Amino acid sequence: MLQYAHAHGLPGRVVERLLVPLTAGLFFLPPERYSAFVLFGLLAQTVQRLRRLRIGAFTGPMTEALAAPWRPLHRAGRVNGVRAGGERLGASHVVLATSLAPAQRLLRRALGEPAWLAPLLRLPSMAVVTFQAELDRPLLPVDRTTFSPGTVLASYAEQSRTTFRHAPGRLSVICSPPEPLLEAPPEEVLATVLADAERLGLDLAGTLRTYRVVRLAEDFMSLAPGHVSLRPDQRTPMPGLTLAGDWTAQPFLATMEGAVISGRRAARVVLEASPGGGGGRWAAEDLSVARNQLEVAAPPSVVFAVLADPARYPDWVVGAKEISSFDHDWPAPGASFRHRFGLGPAAVSDVTTVLAADPPAELVLVACFGPVGAAQVRLRVDRSSAGSLVTMEERPVSGPLGAVRGARLLDLAIHLRNAESLRRLRRLAQGQGESSTAPDSGTSQPRRVRRGAAKTRSRPSGPQQRAQAADPGVHAG
Q1: What residue numbers bound the domain in which 386 lies?
Q2: Residue that wins the pLDDT comparison between 102 and 277
């Protein structure tokens, strides 16, 4: 975010007084580590709902729910229940709705590391440290959230009149940056908080009764650049298993609103999978999707060979202008290519990443379009009497695209664009259009791969480097 601010000439005082409170105070990251894609995506949701936007506080303590450790049970390629505390609980469908890190551990322990799960298992979490204090009297005259950039009290709120009415005074502090405080003794955290409170003119030391430091090394998904495209859909390739949580694909990202929306979508998936639930269709009211189908007079292996060649995407995807680089193991899950996308002179640079692949039957992608947002694209190739039946499904998942998804004009535009894309794909697969050299042949430069750019690239070895290679942030390109 800081890189984007500097590139557009944002004054330093605006960065200090606006960006730092927004990023560090709300989402625990300074602007130099915060994804501009995430910030603009959340702002898009606000603009769409500005007249209905409300901010409130809990009217009572949040319940601390304790659950026995459990793991999904699967047999013959299907999840059919969970095991908790040694007890087996059978179910026709399981919705995994924990926070990110526990979900990753549960899935890895129960299912291993199948290819479709690889992006989710690489999605990093963020640390959170809060300071909770019981006071002799209210510290502030009004229960409201205050931002204090440049101090460890990134944001704080008096809550004795709203959330904790039993207490004569109650202060909740979000500490930033959290990493230095994760291993610090409680007394050291207290001393740091008291010193910065004194700098702010707050008499915290004179009113403090008791305190507690709450530390979570792994809380919600990291909002640093490069991670949005790793989020999974609520629907999984594993029958009987659906995912829910603010870390799944939905436009509100790491918020309570996002968690609620993901739960609605997960419920829709379960209902569709149940008898009489709609045969697996995505409902337009909640899972807006543009769906196109086209017969191709070529076997699935030939059609999928076109999909497996990233250099040929500008030849059939409407709006794709050029491919600047791609991972040599495309279309393996996690592989990506960098592209320029747009119409006419307007174009943005960003990345498309593979979420899942089942050659020659299915390819699931997340295509990012800079500040416009991101979309999930599912390409299915089924054998038919003509040769192949290709199904293309696309739905916005984040950014301004996700904010207006479900709008008829947007759905119609996506449908028309994808109809033309499939016609171009058919011409390529049937050998009637122009062909390009396979990316690994080394005989000539693929068409519309930018001259002077690397035509292939090695996959980064570490999780963080791999995430950076699939960065969907607006600073890409």
Answers
A1: 288-469
A2: 102
